[in-house]
Amino acid sequence: MFDDFRSFIKELEKKGELKKIQGADCDLDIGGITELFAERRGPALLFDEIKGYSKGYRVSSNVVMTERRQKIAFGIPEDMPSVQVIKDWKDRLNQYQPVPPKFVETGPVMENTMTGDKVNISAFPSPKWHERDGGRYIGTGVVVITKDPDEDWVNSGTYRSMIQDEKTLSFFTNPGKHALIAREKYWAKGQDCPVVMCFGQDMLLFVTSTLPLPWGISELEATGYMKGKPIEVIRGPITGLPIPATAEIAVEGFSPPPSIDSRTEGPFAEWTGYYASGSRKEPVVHIKAIYHRNDPIIHGHVPVTFRVNGWYPIPLHTAVTLWNKLEAAKTPGIKGVYVHGPGNKIVAVISVKQQYLGHAKQVGVLASTLFSGGACTGRYVIVVDDDIDPADWEAVMWALTTRCDPETAIEIVTGYLSGPLDPMISPTKRQMGDYTTAKVIINACRPYHWIKEFPPVNMLSEESKKKILDKWPAIFG
Ligand SMILES: Cc1cc2nc3c(=O)[nH]c(=O)nc-3n(C[C@H](O)[C@H](O)[C@H](O)COP(=O)(O)O)c2cc1C
After folding, report:
1. Which of 226, 325, 343, 445 sits CB 3.0–4.6 Å from 370 for a disulfide?
2. Rounded CA gap, 145 and 123, in Å?
3. How far apart are CA 24 and CA 5, in angstroms?
4. What are the beta bridge partners of residue 22?
5. Residue 1 confidence (pLDDT)
6. Are 250 and 110 in contact, with CB atoms under 8 Å apart?
7. Residue ID of nearest Cα to ligand 1 atom 15
């Protein structure tokens, strides 16, 4: 496993999964090229000699846009089937034991320092990724580190951050996110909230920062657990917060209450495929110090066309938690959980071995309630039988279209929390601050009360498939 971003990039190059590009402009070139390569399911990209910036100051994008690269990034065996990956992470997180970070005196991130008047975040190539973006976003593959002022634990979350000026960044958090709760506690005490932000770091720290781990669980400790060894951090000289020692770029600063300073954030092309949250005033971070490695690489992880599941092809950030929650609720018969759709957040599919009348419906209702966190999350919940691989969208469509009677097996339940990024929140509801929408629960399982009479499947059985393959090895290669 890789301890820093650049060794992961090096590995991608070794495996023929990286394309280097020189001379691109931060203003739309990098974003446009990123989108076109993503659409083609192309390689990861490493931009250097970016117009107007020092050689060696780099941006890397599309790094986990394919299942193969996602598996390389997170140390997952390349031949492991997708739903098994979800199960594996679920099982590991179920055994979770905190592995606290190890404090070290210094590390590569301290190779260069800017403090006081020298602080200039614009020295780094921060793309304007999409045509209608309201500014340059240095923080997309970002981790934001904060500490709860009353409880002794450190949070790390991925929240987009935009450059406001040379010494100021804004960061956007949706309702309920842990950094938002912590910073509001500081503000209630009349204090500024200490913040560390990293732009390019250990990929496992990045993925844990995007997982909705429960309140009180530190993503820094969870990363240590997933790696099997503590991550190394340096005590921030200004905030006292831990700074990942191998980060490419890290900033330390303070977020004052919005009454002191807040600035226009957005629009930003969001993962739903729209600019739904527009622009509005958001809290900022006043940067007090910037630390960076020689020749730093910014990790760009941006939503692109809706054709590409831009966040992670394998939905570690959503399906793992949903499966865990269903298990914690002692739901019997769950065989697999997967999440499809934009951001791999919207269409949850649960495969279940039906054991009693009403079982599939119970699973659907439970999943719709347990699957929460952000815009559009779990808007559609589909329950399928255990012969359907929930990761296989074609199989799910087959079940949906042939085992579901729309008259009796589809329900619409209103009033679930969505979020500002949801394009279906009307202007009137936005004005009232009402971010709730309905969810659809679909039972696409064979009806339990006549399951024995349900027509048999007409495909080759696994046994017959094997016989044919064994008998005709030459024609199948
Ligand atoms: C690439 C990516 C970008 C994200 N950007 C944001 C964001 O800008 N704001 C936000 O609130 N959540 C964003 N999220 C979701 C959060 O990172 C995620 O919900 C995480 O669990 C938040 O951490 P927390 O639970 O500690 O608050 C993003 C997730 C990914 C994968």
Report:
1. 325
2. 22
3. 21
4. 48
5. 83
6. no
7. 210
Q: For residue 410, how far is its CA from the centre of ligand 1 (angstroms)?
A: 30
**Cβ neighbours of residue 60 under 8 Å, at least 6 residues apart?**
5, 9, 44, 45, 46, 47, 200, 297, 298, 299, 300
Taking a C-beta distance cutoff of 8 angstroms, is the pair 182, 147 a contact?
yes
Residue 309 is predicted with a pLDDT of 73
All residue ranges of the chain with pLDDT < 70 are 310
Q: Is any ligand 1 atom within 6 A of the Cβ of residue 220?
A: no
Contact of 292 with 250, CB cutoff 8 Å: yes
Q: What does the alpha-carbon distance between residue 372 and residue 437 come to, in Å, rounded to a whole number?
A: 12
pLDDT in tens, 238-285: 999 999 999 999 999 999 999 999 999 999 999 999 999 999 999 999
CA pair distance 64, 73, nearest whole angstrom? 7
Among residues 234, 136, 238, the alpha carbon closest in space to that of 192 is found at 238
Q: Show Cβ contacts of residue 241 under 8 Å, excluding neighbours closer than 6 positions.
A: 145, 146, 147, 154, 194, 195, 196, 235, 252
Torsion sign, CA atoms 182, 185, 189, 190? positive
151, 177, 324: residue to mutate for ligand 1 pocket, most atoms within 8 A of CB: 177
